[in-house]
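Q: How would the structure tokens look for this protein?
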Amino acid sequence: MLTPYRKLFATPGGLAFSIPGLIARLPIAMTYLSVTFIVLYETNSYTLAGTISTGAALFNAIFSPLWSRKADQLGQAKVLRFTIPAYIIFGLLFIYAITHNFHTIIWMAFIFLAEAFLPNIGGLVRRRWLHTLEDKEDGRQLINTAYSFEALVDEIVFIVGPLVASAAAISIAPQAGMYFAFSFMTVGTGLYILQKKSEPPPHPTVKSEKRTAVLAIPYVQAVFLPYIFLGIFFASATLSTIAFADKLDAKGSTGILLATWSAGSAVAAIINGSIKLKITNGQKFIYLLIVMFFLTIPLLFVDSILVLGIVLFLSGLGVAPILISGYAIVEKSVSPARITDTSAWILAGLQIGNALPGPISGYMIDNYGADKSFIVPVVALLITILSLFPYLKVWRVLIKI
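A: Here is the predicted structure in token form.
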């Protein structure tokens, strides 16, 4: 079962860039949670905390594809040397401004600018795997295993990150989680940049070359749209989980609950990379969306931390395979010179979705209670399934990929 992983880990230089990529991605799972803790501590408003998360996610969704495009054109190292220092500087300015009672607009601007400079690290790592494996024997199967491994890494990030952020916020200070995040980002990207042999060559833009915009490609659109509603599901479920734990005076359980959710996805990622299924990525994407919807309905009836943890774990079983399938579909739809750019736009769909439910979930929590707010993620998953219908003709092709 684990033979594909043994072959993958034997790839020269593979873990040398993947492990730093893991460290550099930890802030993704820490920043929004840490910002929520800080804003709640300073303002005591879930609505405002949700609004801040909305703006930050939107800025990242808009600018992350830009940095990915530049990474394709100029090289990954050049882009990271420019963006990461800016991300950390503006993040530190946000902490200083909000803890020193600056006007709301000022510290909002700082966190928005910080997120605007955060590139899609996971997309850069996946691009390196593709560059490293594409010419090898059994390369296609190993690429699937690599994507599954990186999905597992994502889940490790979303297990460890919330635990560290929550523990730091509760035991040290609300802003401590962000300080840890910046430290991980500095170390991770520093080590990642040093791995020069595995860096994909840049593909400078040829002025005479006509290039269709990524989002104008129907195959990309067909995945991008449901990813938006998946993002709504993830963000609204996360905010409702935080509020539910708070309601039961169990703030310390927040990180454990989110880690449990990610653990379910991690288990599925390991299985996905080990077993070669007879169904295609397109079929897997559709089937698992439907299954995950039914596994998520029990969120409407949770009445304890234990029950919520079980439901989140079961729901998480569908997350990694769905995301892996989405990446695999779009990766086969574009040229190698545009893979990082395209992956960033797919991730941007998730981030746009992450941004949308903040005010809605915050309003539901503030006015109707945390348990009632779980209706938002359940409805979001239902709309995710319905969003496939405008692209039925496209999906007839994609289910063969």
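The chain has a mean pLDDT of 86.

The chain has 17 helices and no strands.

Upvote if useful.
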